[in-house]
Amino acid sequence: MAELKLPELAEGVGEAIVSYWHFKEGDEIKEGDDIVEMATDKAAFNVPSKVTGVLKRIAAKEGDTVKVGGVLAVIE
Question: What is the CA radius of gyration of the chain?
Answer without folding.
Answer: 12
